[in-house]
Each structure stands twice: as C-alpha cells, then as structure tokens.
Inverse folding.
C-alpha cells in the first residue's frame, strides 16, 4: 500500500494519505464494527429479568458486599490478579 505522510513545520505527523481503495476497505470494516457494537449494550429478556431480580434482592438486603465478592474471586481465580 502506498502511504503518504504529511507533517507540520515542527515535524509532527498531521495527516496520512492512502489510496481510495484501501480507504474503502477500512471504512467498510469500521462501519461493520460500529453496527456490531450497537448490540453490545442490548440486554436479552433473560438478562433484563436477572438484573431486575438482583436489584430487588439488593433492596431486600440479600446482596453480597463488593469486598466479599472480590475476596472470593481472588481466591478462586488468583491468576487474574497481580500479587
């Protein structure tokens, strides 16, 4: 791919020029990723129901503290935590 770089008077890169066919490939990939990202934050009905159940349990005092959850998580999965 033929790429051209443009810099300002201080030598800082300010722009990149790429062939239009390469730009179209990049643009299409970005557009596809954006479409997929829209669904990342959409909860299924089962997930929505689980959140409501959890919130109701918290209101009833049935929750577990963050500290306790983290302690148990560190014990079960120490490989994910730095010592």
């Amino acid at each position: 791919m033929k790429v051209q770089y443009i810099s300002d008077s201080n030598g800082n890169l300010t722009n990149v020029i790429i062939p239009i066919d390469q730009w179209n490939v990049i643009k299409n990939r970005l557009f596809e990723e954006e479409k997929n990202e829209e669904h990342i934050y959409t909860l299924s009905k089962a997930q929505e129901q689980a959140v409501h159940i959890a919130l109701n349990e918290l209101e009833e005092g049935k929750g577990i503290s963050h500290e306790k959850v983290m302690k148990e998580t560190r014990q079960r999965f120490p490989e994910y935590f730095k010592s």
Remarks:
- The mean pLDDT is 87.
